[in-house]
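Exercise: predict the fold of this chain.
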Amino acid sequence: MRILYVTDALAVWGGIERVLRDKTNYLIEYYGYDIYIVTTDQGLNPIPYPLNDKVHIKDLDVCFYQQYRFYGWRRLQKYLEKRKMFRIRLEKHIKEVCPDIIVCIRVDTVQMILRVKGNIPVICESHSMFNSYIYENATFWNRMSFYLLRRYIRKINCIVALTEGDANDWRKYNKHVCVIPNVVQLNPENRYSKLKSKIVIFVGRFTLQKDFGTLIDMWKIVHKYHRDWELHAYGEGELKHDYEQIVANIDCNIKILPATSNIFEKYLESSMLVMSSLYEPFGLVLPEAMSCGLPVVAFNCPYGPADIIENGENGFLVDNRNIGEFALCVNRLIEDRELRLKMGGCAITSAQRYRAETIMPLWKSLFEKYSDIRG
């Protein structure tokens, strides 16, 4: 089977990029699929996660980001020019590849894909959540764009959500919705943290969604009682410099570090993982860390953490935005190594739900179902 994935770029250390790598590599190695990935804004950026040599990658060189060099009507004009360019180049590429299925990774490109797909089924992956714009205080134009996009959502053959909560939001506009959790690259060497180090780890992009600023406020409370413990934060993102400046001016034992391809070694050097997201379509780092034996603490935000964390078993699920309760849970784990070990053992077991061997057969069945409807 031939699958064409459409996305913007594979240029950052992000969860979407990591999952796409894991899925496409598995589809090639175990099912013999022919995989194509087309991007709009890759340019000369290196791909951070290694792809199978058999993956066919093509960048359409649309460069949507260039519109932001302009303002007002000139920006709108440039955006419309880029849309037309994307539509023409994508249609040509689809005719060259002749895929059995097109998979849309970024929902904002759905409209243009539907216009040029012909009779090829389109599956849309929901990585950013249907209502994500609500949580990010989106601008009027972003909200209007999403409102207009809803008319096209009805025409998608199938939408794949990561959680049942997000799936229910999509079902208001398209009845063909299923839930397939992310494939998670689990602990590759079956080595586990001894949970002895005085290190708490955060892994994620420094963006509004991940809300690392709230984690800083939470850690100030923890630091009052456990001054010998450190919070290590790994990632990149547009707010990283702002957080570095905040941390530099307070006594808190927080280290902000670069994203790394060797993140499992960092999990093994830590004693728990914390997550402070405003919303989380899935929360890839949660089962990753859990597979290394780390208990986790996260806010019960929409919707991912509640699907992964069994409160009091493999970690703590904290009332959303309750910083005081979050700090209490972290302090409890710091002060009770036996509890850390107990939760860490449960975490190892529960993380196995997200193994590729469990998740990928669901994708295979879905692709086979929709490849049969092509006229």
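Check your answer against the key: The two ends are 16 Å apart (CA to CA).
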